[in-house]
Amino acid sequence: MYVVRKWSVSRARFLVGLYQKFEGVLRALDALWLKIGYDRVEKPITFIEKNVKGLLFDCKMCGQCSLRDTGMSCPMNCPKELRNGPCGGVRSDGRCEVKPDMRCVWVEAYRGSQLVENSKSILFVRFPMDYRLRGRSSWLREVRKQRDKAFYEQADS
Ligand code: SF4
């Protein structure tokens, strides 16, 4: 819902902090997810993620969440699904050229990112969409990514 989506951007700092804590819990449960099997937990976790993020961000379950970098404004709500900034057709009042009843998701992303302390990650270039991940859980993907990163860092040292 658009009103809730705008509310979430206004609370970007709080929601980023909350997500970091939540991710810590998910990571702490990594051994449990491994024991149960990531394939088995994917379905129930995806269901929860879809509903929670659907309500707060109009999430489209792209499977590669960028909310933390985009001030809690989901770039998949852009009619052109642009993940690296606005298209150039943004109206002078900040509204979308395709859907003038909403503000450009990137105008919102900038607003949200300004509320997040030390946030420069909106400037990072994001990879193109991997459509194979669509419909899958970004939460679980992040846990696995962090585990792999820790493993390789340990192997390098
Ligand atoms: S970036 Fe992807 S996973 Fe994150 S809220 Fe948007 S559609 Fe959902």
Percent helix? 40-55%
The succession of helices and strands, N to C, reads: HHHHHH
State the end-to-end CA separation.
47 Å
Rg over C-alpha atoms, rounded to the nearest angstrom: 16 Å
Shape: globular
Low-confidence stretches: none
The number of strands is 0
Q: Which ions and ligands are bound to the chains?
A: iron/sulfur cluster
How can the largest sheet be summarized? none
Whole-number tally of structural domains: 1
Q: What is the helix tally?
A: 6
Which quaternary structure do these chains form?
A: single chain
The mean pLDDT is: 92
Class by helix and strand content? mainly alpha
Features:
157 residues; mainly alpha; 53% helix; globular; binds iron/sulfur cluster
Describe it:
The chain has one domain. 22% of the residues are buried. The chain has six helices and no strands. The model has no long low-confidence stretch (mean pLDDT 92). It is mainly alpha-helical and 157 residues long. The chain has helices at 2-10, 12-28, 30-36, 38-57, 105-115, 138-156. The protein is globular and about 50 Å long. Helix content is 53%, strand content 0%. Helix 3 packs across helix 4. Bound molecules: iron/sulfur cluster (SF4). Iron/sulfur cluster binds at residues 53, 57, 59-62, 65-67, 74-76, 138.
